[in-house]
Amino acid sequence: MNGEKKLVVSHAPFWHDGRSIAARNYNTMLAALPAALMGLWIFGGHALGVLSLCIGTAMAWELLLNKIMKRPVSIGNGSAALTGMLLGMVLPASAPVWMVIVATFVAVVLGMVIYGGLGGNPFSPVILALAVLGVSWPLYFNYNYMLQTYDTGFAMAYPLAQLKAFGPGAVTQFSVADFLMGKQSGGIGATFGLGLIAGGLYLIVRGFIRWEISFSFLAGVLVTAWLFNASDSSAYAGPAIHLLSGYTLIGAFFLATDDSSSPVNFIPMLIYGAGAGILTVLIRNIGMYVDGVVLAILLMNVANPLIDAIRPKALGKVVNNA
Amino acid sequence: MAKTITQEFTKGLWKEIPPFRLVLGLCPVLGVTTTMENGFGMGLATTFVLVCSNVLVSMLRNIIPSKVRIACFIVVIATFVCLVELLMQAYAYQLFITLGVFIPLIVVNCIVLGRAEAFASKNKVIPSFADGLGIGIGFTLSLAALGAVREILGTGHVSIPFGPLVTLLDTSWYPAFGFMVKAPGAFIGLGLMLCLMNLVPQK
Question: What is the DSSP string of A139-188?
Fold first, then answer.
């Protein structure tokens, strides 16, 4: 009786419904599976190699660090596997082996373990790894690079790169149906719009991610892209392209909603999502980078503690004499 | 209690090695260690200022009124920074151009001011000299080490200070990890080196 814990106090966030971390992670992987399978079907064997290597090395890094730091082995809860899977889904199928290994090192070791592991990471690990890869190896981390080795039966130019280089006229060949069915170049699991939306809705319905973040992210992208398009439709593409190409969907449902790097209160979640969405389109339309999702989410991750400080005032505060 | 001169000298080389044990003077550590040569040159310039200001502050320690001591230290340090700046313009112009604004910034380097305040203003001239030299050499070694790590990972070659450029990893098969020579690479490199230093048990 004496040894029994009467009160357990832990860190925020406090969403809890009795399900374990492992259940959450495996459900998220399940939700991401349709998009990943579609990617494997489109991009073939190389994609399978990249995705498997990502999951495998992510778990291996975590196991290695667990051993080095003499912590309990934590790969069973699936967080490393999920990180590896999401990372694999945004890499190009042509990613070389060494790049995958460095990417998982950055995501798992620099992004999670050294900040104290699961729940302590200030950035979404996948986003962090993407930012590092984009800065270091733009040549290999490039979706047009795949053109050289692939014949998939549809236009293999990366829509956002086309948009950046040649203006909106260059992307009229893509229809909304193409985007939804994954007939575009991009990350292995980031092209199949329908699968990502279905996976995201599944996660929202089951309560694994918060709808506020995903929907405000998409709304931010939609409104900003629409405003740009309305102001000058010859220079800026319409909202459909911004919503359905690049990392927008996987970002909205899987990356921006990372637990420990996103806010927990209602208003902050809306600000966080909308801010990332607005920044995404701003970077795409007037910045120098092709896709703004990575840097937009990274920036909002940094701002997260500040945004999350916006909260309702506590009841019972002293009121000045009326 | 009183330490010998040798102890004052050697503590700066390992036990109190500035950026890794004291975690002071991080501005140049993060700013100029893109190559080994830059780090080494910055360390030498800082060492010169550190030794000279330590000696002078120690000489003046009974004259300087304690209320305005920080201002007096700054004047002394700034004098030697001007000196080192002019010397580098004369004899190491290329390095002077590369290091740029970080040379004048030695004035506000917390290591220099920290040693003046914490050591030189309380000790005799000879120990202050040994302290300044030890800390300075430790700082130089740390900067050169961090610079070498970042340069090798980031570009594949390493610039031996005042020597040739040695190619260790040929870029024909080594895809240079360009992230390491950019600003965030400095933080990550320094953080990982701090982590390694902390793994080594301290006596």
Answer: TTS-GGGGGGT---SS--S-HHHHHHHH-GGGGTT--HHHHHTT-S-SST
- Residue B108 maps to a domain: yes
Report how far residue A63's alpha carbon sits from residue A4's, in angstroms, rounded to the nearest whole number: 31
Q: How far is CA A96 from CA A133, A140, A289, A319, B45, in A?
A: 12, 8, 22, 63, 43
Instruction: Take residue A94 and report the two structure tokens written for it.
Output: 């042509």
CB-nearest partner of B179 from A96, A98, A132: A132
In a domain, B188, yes or no: no
Q: Which residues pair with B165 in a beta bridge?
A: B159
> In the structure encoding, which two tokens stand for residue A71, read together?
């912590």
The contacts of residue B158 (CB under 8 Å, 6+ apart) are: B35, B36, B148, B151, B152, B165, B166, B168
Is it the case that residue A130 has pLDDT exceeding 60? yes
**B117 CB burial (10 A radius; 0-12, 13-18, 19+):** middle
* Chain B partners within 8 Å of A110 (Cβ): 188
Contact status, residue A300 vs residue A278, Cβ threshold 8 Å: no
Total domains in chain B come to 1
Question: Does the pLDDT value for residue A149 go beyond 80?
Answer: no
Domain ranges, residue B77: 5-140
Asked if B182 reaches chain A (Cβ–Cβ under 8 Å), the answer is yes
Q: pTM value?
A: 0.82
d(CA A126, CA A301): 12
Give residue B194's pLDDT. Answer: 87
Extract the tokens encoding B98. Answer: 């590369």
Residues near A271 by Cβ (< 8 Å), separated by ≥ 6? A216, A263, A307, A310
Nearest to B178 among A99, A110, A136 (CB): A136
> B10 pLDDT exceeds 60?
yes
Report yes or no: B198 at the A interface, CB cutoff 8 Å.
no
b/e burial code for range B47-85 (CB count within 10 A of at least 16 → b): bbbbbbbbbbbbeebeebeeeebeebbbebbbebbeebb
Chain B: residue whose CA lies nearest to A135? B179
B197 three-state secondary structure: helix
Residue pair A204/A211 in contact (Cβ under 8 Å)? The answer is: yes
Chain B, residues 140-179, CB within 8 A of chain A, namely: 175-179
